[in-house]
Amino acid sequence: MPPVIINKEETILGVRRIVERIGATRADLIPVLQAITNEFGFISQPAMEELSTLMNLPTQEIHSVATFYRMLSTQPRGRHVIQFCESAPCHVVGGREVFATLKQALALEPGQTSPDNKWTLLTTSCLGVCGMGPVILIDTDMYGNVTPEQIKEILSRYE
Amino acid sequence: MAYYRSTVLVSMDPVCIEKGALEIKEQLIKELALLKLSDEVQVLDSPRLGDPETEGPDILVYPEGSHYIQLSPATVGPIVLEHFVKGRELQQYKAQMRDVLDEELGEPKDKEIRIILENIGKIDPRNIEDYIAVDGYQALAKVLGEMSPEEVIQTILDSKLRGRGGAGFPTGLKWKFARQAPDTPKYMICNADEGDPGAFMNRKVLEGDPHSVLEGMTIGAYAVGANQGYVYCRAEYPIAVSTLNTAIKQAREYGLLGKDILGSGFDFDIEVRMGAGAFVCGEETALMASIEGSRGEPRARPPFPASKGLWGKPTNINNVETYANVPKIIHRGLEWYTSMGTEKSKGTKTFALAGDVVHTGLIEVPFGLTLREIIYDIGGGIKGGKAFKAVQTGGPMGGCLPVSDLDLPVDYETLGAAGSIMGSGGMIVMDEGTCMVDIARFFMEFTQDESCGKCVPCRVGTRRLLEILEKICAGNGEEGDIEELEELSNQIRKNSLCGLGQGAPNPVLSTLNHFMDEYKAHIYEKRCPAKVCRALIKYEILDGPCTGCTVCARNCPVGAISGERKQTHVIDQDICIKCGICHQVCQFDAINVS
User: pLDDT truncated to tens, each residue of chain B (594 aa)?
Assistant: First the structure.
């Protein structure tokens, strides 16, 4: 994987902006980390260090919270994040075959990012749209009633 | 708050205003005053009702739901006279009834009773006036105006309302404990972290009728003596979060949240907190840790949240559906509420039917209906005319119940005794093509992944269970595996810290209990009777039915199928990954699974 370039100054300014908007108390930590993930794609080391100063918390403590929640990422992600719903209702209506095909098509296992930084494959917990399983979420686009044959076409929609 | 018998909503869409909506409203108020109906019928502004271009200016009259369209000041008089004095709808101005029902929520079936879901799809969740027009906030007005906190608690105790999050603890008792706790301030939490796969009842309520939850929480806060509330909603539900925030904002504007609610001197406000994707946060102590900004790890109880909860203060925590029941109980009375359900489980329960059932989606039934009635009469039976094999109730911590349990009534005690749980209301139906060992493995994969890692029985135990199940599914099962699964399951159940670990072995124990034959077939005969476990099956192309159409070869993702056009094809077993696509795409039933 190519090295990820982090603009340290931009990250620090971004983190300050977010903390100013949301707050710097302990209860604000998770919303702040969520906002950082949304804005920068992941929570980088410089971001954690800046947060540590602003919130007066040890970096380890921030790291421990950031790695606990699935939606917070301390690893860079690809341009598109594919989330496959691995829940039982999707599983029993053919999700297994869809997931196998998806992994094959991307040549990725869950949690991995493609070498060209295009895709990150993740699994997600139930999205609550079980009436139309199997479900795939690509960035914010949701695809329902997916069959293995459709995977190729769906992936081709993304640059 | 005055009690109006009817509410008229006047569309204040810019197009309607241009067409004279303000004059219509003025005329309405004048006509109602002339007939001395001003105290009985209230007139409210509303955002767009129908299509302003073709139907405006228009009004909507509740509780009847009559939609009068294309109005002019001259038509207002006759409508007021006919509708409010004579009680007749004036057909010539009425809009054709449109189907506004939600698509995830079909027409109610015969055996359903909808209380929690009744407003969904019928009111605009982003317009508080719609909720007020269907008697919304009447219960809150009654509570604040006429009842003491003790009376509210007694009413909820008498209603026998039980926690809809799954455990079924009496709600009134929980409130009583929180009220009696000496410490202050007290907090009110709504658990909207609906993480059970396949369960989306709460999402629907939050998206379709958010005020019913806010009203229930506010009533509870008054009873408990709390002034601050939090709704902890999972981030997988972005629409629910945004609907809730709109609802809270509107409730504040109407004086139904915030300082001095309805002039009663009672202060209460609510804030929405979002989860960040951790299943265990549905557990109440983990949820509170997450609101506090820490890792969502559960802690040992006692102390229970009612004495030491959020930030160490007395906290009452209920789930979405529990709160949504509260206004209905207060407004419509105990007699009505307790007429539904069984002796120990009163009222209704929403379920999300999923899996191999004809009608998937949300349903709401009184407690006491049998599984058979739910799956066959309401769910329409099994898809594709296949045979029923099992139903898994209560999410990943629930058990799988076989055919012989189909006539059990659905209530907390019965499901518990059968080796499953009520849970939050997921119901996954499985047909004969489901491998129960694979299902047990699947749920264990889920729980071991979601285990927060704090206590050893859950963290290590679920991992070991999964390894044994994986071994069996891979065809490497051996003598002693079944006994080990049983022993390990019992250890995990007894020694885990929270409900996640304690419930984790349920799918294994229930499938061992009801489907032992399948485990034995996997272990001793190296055979998967449902033809699901890949290591134990083989795909072959049959000579006779194969027409050589090449569809399978073209669809095979690994190129394992070869053969000339119009000649029987062959699968190379060394390359085949057993994905089953060839079996799905073959039009001639030429792929045999053995």
Answer: 467 888 888 888 888 888 888 899 999 999 999 888 888 888 888 777 777 788 888 898 888 778 888 888 888 988 888 888 888 888 877 776 544 445 567 778 889 999 999 999 888 899 999 999 999 999 999 999 999 999 999 999 999 999 998 889 999 999 999 999 999 999 999 999 998 888 889 999 999 999 999 999 999 999 999 999 999 999 888 889 999 999 999 999 999 999 999 999 999 999 999 998 888 999 999 999 999 999 999 999 999 999 999 999 999 999 999 999 999 999 999 999 999 999 999 999 999 988 889 988 899 999 999 999 999 999 999 998 899 999 999 888 899 999 999 999 999 999 999 999 998 888 989 999 999 999 999 999 999 989 999 999 999 999 999 999 999 999 999 999 999 999 999 999 999 999 899 999 999 999 999 999 999 999 999 999 998 898 899 899 998 899 999 999 998 888 899 999 988 999 999 999 888 888 888 889 899 888
Ramachandran angles phi, psi of A100, nearest 5°: -60, -45
Smallest CA-to-CA distance from B593 within B547, B537, B553, B545 is with: B537
Among B415, B359, B387, B333, residue whose Cα is nearest residue B166? B415
CB contacts of B295 in chain A (<8 Å) are 64-65, 68
> String of b and e for A42-67 (b: at least 16 CB within 10 Å)?
bbbebbbbbbbebbebeeebbeebbe
First to last CA, chain A: 19
Residues of chain B with Cβ-Cβ distance to A133 below 8 Å are 354
DSSP state of B476: -
Chain B residues inside the 8 Å CB shell of A93: 355-356
Dist CA B457 CA B504 (whole Å):
11
Q: What is the C-alpha to C-alpha distance for residues B418 and B401, in angstroms, rounded to an integer?
A: 8
Tokens of B219: 């009533």
At B470, list the tokens: 């994986």
Domains and CATH numbers, chain A: 8-66 (no CATH), 80-156 (3.40.30.10)
Q: What is the pTM of this model?
A: 0.82
Residue of A125, A127, A146, A155 best to disrupt the B interface, most CBs of B under 10 A: A125
Closest-CA distance of chain B to residue A103, Å? 11
Domains of chain B: 6-93 (3.40.30.10), 128-336 (3.40.50.11540), 348-431 (3.10.20.600), 436-524 (1.20.1440.230), 538-593 (3.30.70.20)
Please state the φ and ψ torsions of residue A33, each to the nearest 5 degrees: -60, -40
Read off the tokens for B258: 């915030």
Give the minimum alpha-carbon distance from A119 to chain B in angstroms, rounded to a whole number. Answer: 20
